Structures are given as structure tokens and as C-alpha cells.
Amino acid sequence: MRRRFVFPFLLALVWAAPALAADVHVRLSVRGGGLHLRAPEVLRPGATRLTLDVVDARGTAAGWTLALRSPGVLVRSLGTGCGVHSTCTLPQAVASTALLQAARGTGLGTIRVTLEVEPVSSPTPLDFVLRG
To answer: Which residue, of 52, 92, 95, 132, has the greatest Cβ tally within 10 A?
Structure first.
């Protein structure tokens, strides 16, 4: 039984030997992406839970600000976490007109923002502003 596995193993080593004899150089360049927001456009009547994705793929660590400029919408709660398959640095919530403000060095990667909002009138268009 062992002999069955020894021959293919030795044959693989013989074929791989030339690859081990030289260095392999690969050139790789990384380009920065952009700053993007994925958000719903209209709220349904009653309290609603929204999920937004802020994607900062610029590679500059310059930070950004996310604001909600919809006077007919009350924000009940806000939570953040890293997006699926993303390593991120979470932004800090601020007490101002902005929902989130990512200071320099934070907010990188895909940030999943979960909001619980209550529209005052229906249907209420959402006006999110992302600056960076």
C-alpha cells in the first residue's frame, strides 16, 4: 500500500525541482478605490430598521462624515460593525448633525451601519450625505 503513494510523491518532487532552483518575481500594484455609500431611498410608514454600507477603499485614512439630511426622519438608534468579509476600523459616533464621523485613521474598509428610524410623514425620501 505504501508503494502506491511513494512513486507519485517522488515523481512530483522530480517535476517540482526546477521550480525550486530559481527565484520567482511578481510585480504587484495596489490602487486605491473610492468612498461609496449604499443606502435605501424611501422609508415605509412606521419605525424602520435600515442597513447602510459605507465603503472606504481610498487607502488614505483621511476619514469621512456621514450625515442624514431628512427633516421628516427621527433616528432612534445607531449601530456599526465591519461588513461581511471586511477588516475595518470603526468610526466614532458624534453628537452633532452628523450620524457618524470617522476621524483620521478610522473608518477604513466596509462599515455596516444599522439605523432604527421613524418617519414623521410617509413616504419619506432619505437624504444621506457622505463626505470625505
So the answer is: 52
Label the pairing between strands 64-68 and 128-131. Answer: antiparallel
pTM tops 0.70, yes or no: no
In words, the CATH class of domain 35-131 is: mainly beta
Question: What count of other Cβ atoms lies within 10 Å of the Cβ of residue 38?
Answer: 13
The answer to whether 27 and 93 have CB atoms below 8 angstroms apart is no
Task: In whole angstroms, give the CA distance from residue 10 to residue 129.
Answer: 62
* Domain residue ranges of the chain, discontinuous segments joined by +: 35-131
pLDDT in tens, the chain (132 residues): 555 665 666 556 556 555 555 677 777 655 668 888 888 877 777 778 888 899 998 888 888 899 888 888 888 888 888 888 888 888 866 555 678 888 888 888 888 989 888 877 766 778 888 888
